[in-house]
Structure formats: C-alpha cells, structure tokens
Design goal:
Oligomer: single chain
Strand order of the largest sheet: 1-30-29-28
Low-confidence stretches: 1-22, 390-456, 459-482
Helix content: under 10%
Radius of gyration: 21 Å
Number of strands: 37
Shape: globular
Distance between the termini: 37 Å
Largest sheet: 4 strands, antiparallel
Mean pLDDT: 77
Structural class: mainly beta
Number of helices: 2
Strand content: 25-35%
Length: about 475
C-alpha cells in the first residue's frame, strides 16, 4: 500500500530537461490570492455553480486552522462562507472539492475526525454533517476524492484506506439532506489476493465517474498485478469488475477521469516517470477494454508530475495542469487535442507568481480556463475560448448548463436562447425541467432530444433555441442540460 501525503509541499518528483511546445497568445490573470486565514492549500478542484460564482475548499486555514469553504463571485469578491471545525464533531481538513447536487446545495468530504465525514453545505455556508466514517465496522477511511452524483440522486465515493485489508473501499450514500435521512453503504472493499498482490487494485484516490451505461468507473492508485493500479467498473448494485491492470509505464492515477458524449474516457498517470494522458474505451470487460497513451510528458518545458486529471471542452480538446517542471520549473497549464499536438498554454512561477498547481482546472461557462495553485485562483483566456463539453460523468459533472426561465407570457411560450455551439451536437443531448426549484416536481426525468423534441421542450437546430411549452410549464422553471 502506498501512503499519499495530504500536503502539497511533501510531494516530490523526478525532473529532466526537454524542449516543450510553444503556445499562441494567451491571457493569464491571477483573480485572487488567499491569506492563511482564508485558507491554504487548495487541494481540490474549484466549481462554477449554477449561480455563476466559483466555490471551493482549502484544506487548512480559517478560524480553526482546519480548512475553509469559500466563494469567489463573478465580480471578484471573495468570501469565506464557512470555517471547518466550528462545531464539535464537524469535519476537518477537506482534501477534495465540492460538487453541486440536484437540490442546489454542495456536498463534499473531509479527512477527519475519525475516518472522515460526508457533509452538505448550503450556498450561504451552513454545514450539516451527514455521516461520519467509522460509524460501521465496514466503513473505509480517508475519502480524499470528491463525491459524484448519479441521475437518480445517489452519491458515490471512495476511501483511500479502510476495509478488511486497509486498501480502500467504494461506497454510496442516499440522503434527504439530514443525518437521520442519510444511508451509507459500502459497495466494495478492495481485497488483497494471495501473495499480497491485489489484482483489483488498491488505494483509490481519484473520484468516480458515471458511464453512459449507468455504471460507475474509477481508478486505483496502486495494487493490481503490476503494482501500478487499475481501472475498474462497479454497478450501482455493487458488482465489481477489473477492466485494466496498469503496466510499469502506465498507472498511478490520482486525478479524475472524464468522458465525452460517445463514452470515451480520458485520464492522467503520474508514472513514466513524468506522467501521461491516456484514453480508454470499454465494453465492461477486461478483454474489451483498450487503453491508449495520448501523450507522455518529458519533464522539460512541457511540464511533468501529475496529481490532477483533465477536463474536456465542446471541441473535444483536453485541458490540464502539471505540478512541476516547465519553463520556470513550477508546473504548466496545457491543451491536448486527442490524436493531435500538446500545447503549453502557461508556465507557472514567473516572477512573484505562485507555482505548482495541485488541483485540476475547469472550463467556465464563458469558455475560459479556471484553476488554483496552493493559495491563488487564476483564469486563463485561450486565444479561442470554447465552452465545456455537454456530457461528463455523474449528475454534478454532467450538468453543463442550468438556465432559469420566467413564467411564459399569456398566449406564448418561454423561449430559452442556448447556442448550438454551447449545446454541442444536439443528438444525444438530454434535458430535465424542474418547476419552482422543487426537485420532485419534474417531468420524465432525463429526456432525450434525439429528434429535436422531448415532448415538452423543442429544439430549433437552426436558431439554437429551446422552446418550453407554456401549457405544461406556466410557472418559473429551471432547465438542466447534459
């Protein structure tokens, strides 16, 4: 078993020299620098919520020095919404970022007390501890990864340690937002095989992702026959399948997987020894899983040393960060076109600029790239900004746009302007309509718009407008797209 440090300062990597790819004109802006009282380090990816603001967690700092939950508004105003550890039994040291769930609240995990906690946070910063790991003997310990939510509202996650062999677990959580209404279930414990070789893998560190088939996919950091981790699938009922065993030139995945609308997965490896970006396709079996390395980092100007995963925009390009190396020796931000070149967009650590981005980046609704270093939040405006891809894994990642419609005018329909470029390919797009922000007041769950219509919502592919029927929805509605 490999023990991962929580703090950025304790991660070390090999370095080497190699020329990197030049970048076209980009605009890099440091949006905000957190003080120690506001929180540091930021080890989890930030999130752009449905209100357009950015939310995230810092692992330490705050009033109690055990972490904060913060908001950066669109106008640049920074607010610490909550300092962890303010109430007895409350979670401490949030290593992962938060996700925004169907109900509009944020959900996340902490590393302490005990084996960690699962919590709900309102947009105003009110925290509710839903579950403390260790309550049951089968619970794992240390949920370093963020949660993922499926379309039925169930949360899934992993623990880095715990279980019978202390090599980690996969769990699911159903909740109504209260401790009494929360059920925690361990779906799978990674079990050591004879001879100490864990063929299933061990110590899952990155978050899970929901596939187009409704099953859950993830990676382990170590274990497997080659001791460099695995790719796995687990059904909502808990049936586990090892899909791929990483070789000595692959694996050791810590970051999130991402997938495109066709079901192709992308991830990052910290091995090789400078790291790589890979893709895989699968039919749900080991024999039917094919893993391809798209790019291997050299440790030169292209950077090297991975902790975070990549994100994908609607053009299919991948964006990510390396922890070290690059022109200034302190990490890079890059764009990779699958089957094409890698472009270094920014080298961290020039002058007084903070270095070594630990968490991954996101693509904002404006098409710009947002991310963090240890204690700063930054924006990179590519020469050509492209919105995020419409389909990811899990509801919180899957929802790529949330738009609120006013009540329809008398005798007319509510019209939602949503460009075809933002929506991606209309075929395969799905939609959910929610009336008056009441989660139970929905029609038909996720509805396909394969033919330009979902029954109550029509898509004009020429103008890029969605039209909501006034007869079905005379009230204020919220529309989710994925």
């Amino acid at each position: 078993m490999k023990l991962l440090p929580l703090l950025l300062s304790s991660i070390c990597w090999l370095t080497c020299l190699h020329p990197g790819s030049p970048a076209s004109a980009q605009t890099f802006t440091q949006l905000y620098s957190l003080t120690a009282a506001e929180g540091s380090p930021i080890t989890g990816r930030i999130l752009q919520a449905s209100d357009g603001n950015f939310y995230g967690t810092a692992q330490q700092g705050g009033t109690n020095s055990v972490g904060t939950f913060f908001k950066l508004a669109a106008d640049g105003t920074f607010t610490v919404l909550h300092s962890f550890g303010s109430v007895a039994g409350e979670g401490q040291y949030p290593n992962a970022g938060v996700i925004q769930a169907i109900d509009g609240n944020f959900y996340g995990t902490t590393g302490a007390p005990g084996g960690g906690t699962i919590y709900k946070m309102t947009p105003a910063g009110m925290l509710t501890t839903l579950y403390t790991l260790g309550t049951q003997s089968t619970d794992g310990r240390f949920p370093y990864a963020p949660l993922v939510q499926s379309a039925d509202g169930t949360f899934y996650g992993v623990t880095y340690q715990g279980g019978p062999d202390d090599t980690g677990t996969i769990f699911k959580v159903t909740t109504n937002g209260t401790p009494g209404g929360t059920t925690f279930t361990t779906l799978h414990s990674f079990a050591a095989q004879a001879g100490g070789v864990n063929d299933e893998g061990a110590n899952p560190y990155g978050p899970l992702i929901v596939g187009v088939d409704g099953n859950i996919y993830g990676t382990t950091y170590s274990g497997g026959a080659n001791h460099h981790g695995t790719i796995f699938q687990i059904t909502p009922a808990g049936a586990f399948t090892t899909l791929h065993v990483f070789s000595a030139t692959e694996g050791e995945c810590r970051g999130a997987l991402v997938r495109d609308s066709s079901g192709v997965f992308y991830g990052t490896s910290s091995n090789q020894p400078q790291g790589s970006v890979f893709q895989f396709v699968t039919d749900g079996s080991m024999a039917g899983t094919a893993v391809t390395t798209l790019y291997s980092f050299t440790g030169g100007s292209d950077g090297g040393g991975f902790v975070a995963g990549v994100v994908i925009n609607s053009d299919g390009d991948l964006y990510g960060v390396t922890l070290l190396n690059g022109a200034n020796g302190n990490g890079t931000l890059f764009r990779l076109t699958p089957g094409g070149p890698l472009t270094t967009l920014h080298a961290f650590g020039a002058g007084s600029e903070e270095a070594q981005p630990h968490a991954g980046v996101i693509i904002g609704s404006d098409g710009n790239v947002y991310g963090t270093t240890k204690s700063t939040i930054f924006k990179l405006q590519p020469s050509s900004a492209v919105p995020p891809a419409p389909v990811h894994g899990g509801l919180s990642d899957t929802v790529f746009a949330v738009r609120k419609l006013p009540p329809a005018t008398s005798g007319g329909d509510s019209v939602l302007h949503f460009s075809a470029r933002q929506s991606g390919t209309p075929e395969g797009l799905k939609v959910r309509v929610q009336v008056n922000n009441v989660p139970d007041n929905e029609r038909n769950d996720w509805v396909d718009l394969n033919n330009g219509s979902g029954g109550y919502l029509t898509l004009d592919k020429t103008t890029g407008k969605f039209v909501l029927s006034a007869s079905n929805y005379p009230e204020t509605s919220v529309i989710y797209f994925r």
